[in-house]
């Protein structure tokens, strides 16, 4: 079975990874942080979350999938105080129910000290 990779968009400075990799009908999406298209990182949690969702939708779309095709997501937060806000934003972005299975972890740090959130996921891609 072959693997289809989804690299960062041209001109986007990123670590050595694929944003997504598809094997069969499964799409594995790398941890997506809250960077904007210019690799800027907003100060607010809400703006970083919005960027994560935008980037998630782009990777899913390139693979022929949507947010409704997500099966499992892992959310990493650097502040426990953002969990309630994340749940509200998450419901709007990943809903309506049923939602994908989810794990939420609060971590000490992410690769950039200004990163407040990172989300990774697995989607089932039809066709």
TrEMBL record:
Keyword annotations from UniProtKB, A to Z: Hydrolase
EC number from the UniProt entry: 3.5.99.5
Cellular component terms (Gene Ontology): cytosol
CDD domains from the UniProt entry: YjgF_YER057c_UK114_family
Gene3D superfamilies named in the record: RutC-like
Molecular function as annotated in GO: 2-aminomuconate deaminase activity
Pfam families xrefs: Ribonuc_L-PSP
SUPFAM superfamilies associated with the record: YjgF-like (SSF55298)
Name this protein carries in UniProt: 2-aminomuconate deaminase
Gene this chain is encoded by: amnD_2
